[in-house]
Amino acid sequence: MPAPAPAAGRPYDPYDAVLLVSFGGPEKPEDVVPFLENVTRGRGIPRERLEEVGEHDFLFGGRSPINDQNRAFIAALRADFDAHDIDLPIYWGNRNWDPYLRDTMAQLAVDGRSRVACFVTSAYSSWSSCRQYRENLFDAVQGVEGAPTLDKLRHYFNHPGFVAPVVDAVVAALEDLPADVRDGARLVFVTHSIPTAMNDSSGPPEQGGAAYVRQHLDVAAVVAAQVAERTGVERAHDLTFCSRSGAPHIPWLEPDVNDHLEAIASEVSAVVVIPVGFVSDHMEVIYDLDTEAKATAEELGLPFRRAATPGEDERFVAVVRDLLLERAAVERGEDVVRAALGTTGPMWDRCPVGCCANPRAERPALCGLTAPADA
């Protein structure tokens, strides 16, 4: 039986809504510790330790930037959809703060939405950056009468619409450096550190794990090559990490960006720090990089610039539309051309069996090629 054709003028069939899935963040000082309790639930972390961690948020008035960034992104996405006749409502649900995924799922059901494309504000493969969101989606639909079918749009770390704003931001940061240190600047890519065991289990088991680091290295190489082509100067680049948390005896990905700046300070004339692991200026960016890493560079006498994140750049916003229409065509049984740069190639629509295993215990998740009960 042939696949159904889209209704006239509706290239997004079979979808009747889009859901932005994000991490969430506190919006006032009294939210900070409850938010951190949500993030760390089940780990037995004392409240006093959470209050210490929350000091980062208190430095910025107890308000994380992430929810405002999501609101701005949704407004930009609405404008993009309207400009391209994508007549779909856009919903928003967070893992750890209001609006919670569970509440959004209930609203989707009330509104009669039946098939929803989910765009996650995390671009890479690992349990915390992918599988955990899929587990959250499973939890969110439980007991919700009339809950829609959910499809997670594919990873986009190597999509041209994500890469292009990063390249532009690096070039702009280089141009902002003094001319006499610009050519000798090192490109220091930064992403969120995760436990080494989580990296080892990231990606499909048959690919040997370590997908999280491989994907970052791949996109960093693409960005560095395009920057070299634009500027006429080839610069060395490195991948570093930030925001390590957890027990000291558990190994996490290294080097920390601050340690790395100290290690290379005598070898380079300047640094451009590139938060390639983040789609917008999260707390990890404005504190770990704009505050801590910048202070480290100043102590070292090292000229420092931080490249902008994609944020609401129209090319990044358009990634959602591209992935939506791509996946809609796939679900209708049509052939598609998938945009991707680098050596990894376009990512899968449904996560393979065993992909990005939960480090604590196996839990059901949506949007993957898993057992029928959790597929």
Protein model, in words:
- The chain has a four-stranded parallel β-sheet with strand order 2-1-3-4, sandwiched between helices. The chain has a four-stranded parallel β-sheet with strand order 6-5-7-8, sandwiched between helices.
- It has 13 helices and eight strands.
- By secondary structure, the protein is α/β, with parallel strands linked by helices.
- It is globular, with a radius of gyration of 21 Å.
- It folds into two domains: 17-156 and 312-374, Rossmann fold (3-Layer(aba) Sandwich); 160-306, Rossmann fold (3-Layer(aba) Sandwich).
Q: Compute the number of structural domains.
A: 2
What's the total number of strands?
A: 8
Query: What is the CATH C-level name of the largest domain?
Result: Alpha Beta
Structural class: alpha/beta
Alpha-carbon Rg, integer: 21 Å
| Helix coverage percent | 40-55%
Number of helices in the DSSP assignment: 13
| Major sheet attributes | 4 strands, parallel
